[in-house]
Design brief:
Elements (H helix, E strand, L loop, with lengths): L2 E12 L2 E12 L3 E5 L6 H9 L9 E4 L5 E4 L11 H7 L6 H12 L2 H14 L3 H12 L14 H13 L5 E5 L7 H13 L3 E5 L3 H7 L2 E6 L2 E6 L2 H34 L10 H14 L22 E10 L2 E10 L5 E5 L6 H8 L7 E6 L5 E4 L12 H6 L4 E3 L5 E3 H7 L16 H13 L5 E5 L7 H13 L3 E5 L3 H7 L2 E7 L2 E6 L2 H21 L19 H30 L4 H29 L1
Parallel strand pairs: 3-7, 3-8, 5-6, 6-7, 12-18, 12-19, 14-17, 17-18
Antiparallel strand pairs: 1-2, 1-4, 8-9, 10-11, 10-13, 15-16, 19-20
Length: about 625
């Protein structure tokens, strides 16, 4: 297969911190690669170097095959908030179609001669189909209101617009940084299918393990500043990674055994050594480096006490809320119980986060009652992320909450020790929060939520920006959590591991309770849809009545006959007018004002012809 990308000796550092150094690799046509590593080790930086957004330190080379198109999906795409969705996407198509860009500039200039040339170029290049393609892609991503300003969009809606811009480029090579963040599950499954069917070459960072497992055929891992490549999906990667660590550990153990013997030789009879043994002395120091390699991997340690929880947690009685004509919650009643694990799913904008704000008291319902238990202590991990003061450091943020944290066994742990357990070393305590990576900020936010020793955890999209290693630890903690758990997530793997029943937000304020994991719910939906299709096929078509086939055609009345004749005359006249205008438009001699007028008139003629032809058919039947 053709080599689409060759990377030689690239490096990246921030201050005295080296993310990776001297990395080289090759990506071939058809590879679908996921890049995995803990947060803060340079995944996003590597993608940005490949996309040309950032540059490698100390040289290096990034070389794509000539003439292939490369599309980059950043975690956060900057948009013009004043543009409508269609205008924003349309404005990004200029690079793909120079003719389209020139047409837009020609219309803005008002120069009729320039407009005529631009129209001719659009005709020749097929540029008019771009608008149709935009509408089709936006529709496939369930973006209906294309006239909505970009500044009014939610995070999930903005992400779908960014995906549309990427898909419309028809690029051979896609670079995607966390493509599933903020998307609802339906769109994730659509994107999953799109990438499975696509013949594009792909390099992406994602924490969604089902998505990764089903889309990718290769895993790249950044480990201790070096890059390792594994052929196969995520499940196979885990097996091969464990095998690599066992082999590396065996090599280290072997080196340490050799080091003991060499150390005895180094220490013995120093006067007997001559220049002939110099190679052995040099080999000793190489061996010492190999034997001192530390293969232990750091992971987050979540050890926090859960406050005592009484019998009453949250009671909702006939709770309703609407925003204008949009109903978010309709007479919802439910009593949460201790040890309950609820997952919340539904498309973006259906009211999931609004529901969380109601039950936590941040938003008052229009009607109904929400009662909280006296012993309830809620830990609310929201989508918006951590709040901090300008210039605030990691340690200041934590100490503002508490100097000590109560651990699961009851003893007190200092805030600094707790930071260490969440992989914030001592030299990071005085770092400003605003310069941390997105994943590091999320990890710090999780720490601050757990420091309050909650007995009910409400997690709104907790998997956004957390690396897979941290997610694994969080899943284990939630499995042992003794309180009540409420999770909004698009991560199907995370939901399957952490919840035992689901609130399905169906829209218009309706909530359905489904007992089981998300994968079971999807199977249930597929079976139900298949049964409905089968039932529709099995319904026999109505048989025509016997006299239908022999019924004689009713004769037209005198008035209907005159109407039919008039329609035929009108159609002939309209056809002549349409042909005349089309000839004028194609002549290229019309001034700009007449050009606009003629275009509008031909649209009116087409509409009238369609209406009259429909009536003509009715009369002839």
């Amino acid at each position: 297969m053709a080599s689409y990308l060759q990377v030689e000796n690239i490096s990246k550092s921030y201050g005295d911190r080296t993310l990776f150094e001297g990395i080289s690799f090759n990506i071939n046509e058809g590879d679908k690669i996921a890049l995995v590593a803990p947060n803060g080790t340079g995944k996003s930086s590597l993608l940005k170097i490949l996309a040309g957004v950032e540059h490698s330190d100390r040289g290096g080379e990034v070389k794509f095959m000539r003439d292939i198109r490369v599309a980059f999906l950043d975690q956060n795409t900057a948009f013009n908030p004043k543009n409508t969705i269609f205008e924003e996407v349309y404005s990004r198509m200029g690079d793909l179609s120079p003719e389209l860009g020139e047409y837009e500039r020609a219309v803005a200039s008002g120069d009729s001669r320039r407009i005529e040339k631009a129209i001719a170029a659009m005709d020749a290049s097929g540029g008019w189909s771009i608008e149709q393609n935009i509408r089709q892609v936006l529709s496939s991503l369930k973006i209906e209101r294309i006239d909505q300003p970009m500044g009014e969009l939610s995070g999930g809606e903005a992400k779908r617009v960014a995906l549309a811009c990427m898909m419309l480029q028809n690029a051979e090579f896609l670079i995607m940084d966390e493509p599933t963040n903020h998307l609802d599950i339906d769109i994730i499954e659509y994107l999953e299918g799109y990438l499975q069917r696509s013949r594009c070459t792909l390099l992406m960072v994602t924490h969604d393990r089902y998505f990764l497992d089903r889309v990718c055929n290769t895993i790249m891992e950044i480990d201790r500043g070096k890059l390792y490549t594994y052929r196969g999906n995520y499940t196979q990667y885990l097996e091969k990674r464990e095998e690599r660590y066992l082999n590396m550990q065996a090599e280290v153990d072997k080196s340490r055994n050799l080091l003991r013997r060499e150390l005895e030789w180094i220490r013995s009879t120093p006067q007997a050594r001559t220049g002939k043994a110099r190679y052995r002395i040099n080999a000793f120091y190489d061996l010492k480096d190999k034997a001192s390699v530390n293969l232990s991997t750091q992971s987050v340690e979540i050890d926090v006490a859960t406050s005592r929880l009484g019998r009453k947690i949250i009671d909702c009685m006939e709770v309703s809320l609407s925003f204008g004509e949009r109903r978010m919650l309709d007479s919802f009643s439910y009593k949460f119980s201790r040890g309950e694990r609820v997952g919340i799913v539904g498309r973006n904008g259906v009211g999931k986060s609004t529901f969380l704000n109601i039950i936590t008291g941040k938003l008052a319902p229009d009607s109904g009652i929400v009662e909280l238990g006296e012993t309830l202590r809620i830990g609310y991990y929201s989508q918006r992320g951590i709040s901090f003061k300008p210039g605030q450091t990691v340690l200041e943020c934590v100490q503002e909450i508490a100097e000590v944290v109560k651990a699961a066994d009851g003893h007190a742990v200092s805030a600094t020790t707790y930071l260490n357990r969440f992989l914030f070393p001592h030299d990071s305590f005085n770092k400003r929060i605003d310069i941390l990576s997105g994943g590091e900020q999320r990890r710090l936010y999780l720490l601050t939520v757990l420091m309050h020793n909650p007995n009910m955890l409400i997690l709104d999209e907790p998997t956004n920006d957390l690396d897979i290693m941290t997610l694994n630890v969080l899943e284990e903690y939630l499995h042992e959590f003794k309180g009540c758990l409420l999770i909004v997530s698009h991560d199907r793997y995370f939901l399957d591991k952490c919840v035992d029943h689901l609130f399905i937000f169906e829209g218009d304020g309706r909530i359905k309770d489904f007992v089981g994991q998300y994968s079971e719910y999807r199977e249930y939906v597929k079976e139900r849809e298949a049964a409905e299709r089968s039932e529709q096929k099995s319904i026999p078509a109505p048989k025509p009545q016997r006299n239908d086939s022999v019924r004689e055609k009713r004769k037209l009345s005198y008035k209907e006959q005159r109407e039919l004749e008039q329609i035929e005359a009108d159609l002939a006249s309209l056809g002549d007018e349409r042909a005349k205008i089309e000839e004028e438009l194609s002549s290229g001699a019309l001034p700009y004002g007449r050009l606009t007028e003629a275009s509008k008139r031909i649209e009116e003629i087409i509409a009238i012809i369609d209406e009259k032809e429909l009536r003509w058919l009715e009369l002839n039947e």
